[in-house]
Structure formats: C-alpha cells, structure tokens
Amino acid sequence: MSSKQGGKAKPLKQGKVEKKEYDEIDKVNIQKKKDEEKALKELRAKAAQKGSFGGSGLKKSGKK
C-alpha cells in the first residue's frame, strides 16, 4: 500500500464568521474599552519616553 500522503495534513477550511448584531449598550461598552486601551497605550509611550523614575539611579546613603 503506497499512498502519496506525507507530511502535515492541511487543516479544513472554516466557515465565514457572521457579524454580530450589537445593541446600544454593547456599542457603548465596546467604545469605552477602545478608549481605555488607547489611553493606556499613550501612557505607556509617555512612560517609556521619560526613562527611569527619579533620574538619579541608585541612591546611596551618606553613611560610611
């Protein structure tokens, strides 16, 4: 029995996903979530720009 099937089998195609119908409450929640993600992204970019907090690195005590 010689078959020409070798290697990895191709996955079956999935059907197209139908778009969901959203009511007003869902739309508001989705928009709110997008706004929060955008604000977090901006804050992360701002924090990355500034670098380390304090800017003086490790603080050493005055004691010897």
UniProtKB/TrEMBL annotation:
Protein name: Translation machinery associated TMA7
Biased composition (Basic and acidic residues): 15-24
Region feature (Disordered): 1-24, 44-64
InterPro entries recorded: TMA7
Source taxon at top rank: Eukaryota
Bilayer-crossing regions: none
Species this protein is from: Hevea brasiliensis
